Each structure stands twice: as structure tokens, then as C-alpha cells.
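Weekly structure sync, notes
Attendees: PL (lead), two postdocs, one rotation student
Agenda item 3: pending single-chain targets
PL asked that the sequence for the first pending target be pasted directly into the notes so everyone works from the same version. It is reproduced below exactly as submitted, 246 residues in total.
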Amino acid sequence: MTSDRLTVVVADDERPARAFLAATVRTIAEAELVGEASGGAEAVALIERVRPDLALLDLHMPEIDGLAVVRLVRPECLPLIAFVTAYDEYAVRAFELNAIDYLLKPVEPERIRQTIVRAREQLAMHVTDRTAPGQYLLRIPVRHHDDIVLLPVERIIAIESDRDIVYLSGPTGEQHTLRYPLKDLEARLDPRQFIRVSRSALVRVDAVRRASPLPNGSYMLVLTNNQQVQLSRARAQVLRDVLFRI
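Predicted structure, written out during the meeting:
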């Protein structure tokens, strides 16, 4: 960001959607539209040519989709990324690429303005969260009414699963749901912060308040939000290796 205005490019293969995004960006005083692309290949070339601060990318573009655009752009040219889509099932994949936002169509102008504000704040603080794919998630996208919101990993106390639905519990007992396999989510979380306590549950290490033995050799863990999660007998070694280590 070389001036007070955030430079932005938009990419969407649907002309009306692209025109809406472009027109909305033009109404935001803190932003400057510096390019439009009608497809993924064009978006890659545009981003590398103009080097914007932020790219608003449609996820579903033919041949090269929004996710592929992020992987194809040279790292030194990669801007902050916000995905725009009519679908929410790719949210975790998007944030594995450290997108700063995930906007669901139809997008309200105010929602785009919020994304611009978030991007400006990150650039102003020189904190972009754009770590390389494969590093641990810092935030997890979850559905809240009609929006996708970013839940900081540090606010997650426990994660429990039922098939491919996971339930994320917060510090005051609030719960969010996400359609994502638990084993895949576990692989994206820092193992120093989260431990598996059963086939269907992970807990934050520093959120375990008490461990009470049960007759079958398992333990009942009481967490800082007063939630109870059972640690299976097969995972009892975790108590000695992690929770009870001095």
C-alpha cells in the first residue's frame, strides 16, 4: 500500500458479478480499483503486472479457479486475498491459503467495505497472516447466519466430531459447526496446542482444568469453559506425556 488507498483487483468470470464488485470498490474512498480479470489465467497475469494490495477472487472460474490463482502467482507478487463465492464448502481450503476473508454471494456492499478495512489494518500493522500453505491455521472459517466469520484458533477450547461435521466450542460455551473431517482439521492445527483425546475429539492443552479417572480406565476432562470431554482409555498415555508433565 504505497498511499492511503488500498489497491484492489477483482476477478470473476461472470460479467454482472465482476461489474458489481468493481463498482462497489470504486465507491469506497479507502480503495482504488486497479484492474479486472474475467478468468483465472488473466487474474494471475494481472496480479503479477500491477501488484495490488488485495485481490477479490471468485472461487469458481473455468480452467483456473480462485484457489489455483493463489498457487500460481509468484510469491513475491502475491497480495492479500479475499474469496467471493456462492458456496461455503471451500472455506477451510481457502483459509489454508491464508485468505483474509471469504464472502458469500450475494455480497452486500458493506461486507466488501469490511474486507477493505481488514486488509488496510493488516497492511498498516505489517501483519498479513500470509504464511505458506502447509503451516498451521490461525483462524477457522465458520458459518454465522448468512456470513462466513473467522474464528481465531486461540478461542477454540474443544473440537468434537460426528462423521464429517465438527463442533468447535469456545471459552464461554458457544459452539460453531463446520463440515470438515476431524483428522484433516487436526493436521492443520498446532499439535503443541491441541491433543486428540478420543477418536472423535480434540482439546486445547491449556484449557484442561481437571482430569477425573473413570472405572473403565478412561478419564473425564473438565475444561475451562466447564465442558466435559472424555479421554479414552487408549489415549490415557496423553495424560502422562502432555497434561501431567511437569
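Discussion points:
- Helices lie at 15-26, 40-50, 66-72, 91-96, 109-125, 182-187, 237-243.
- The CA atoms of residues 54 and 80 lie 5 Å apart.
Action: rotation student to compare against the earlier draft before next sync.
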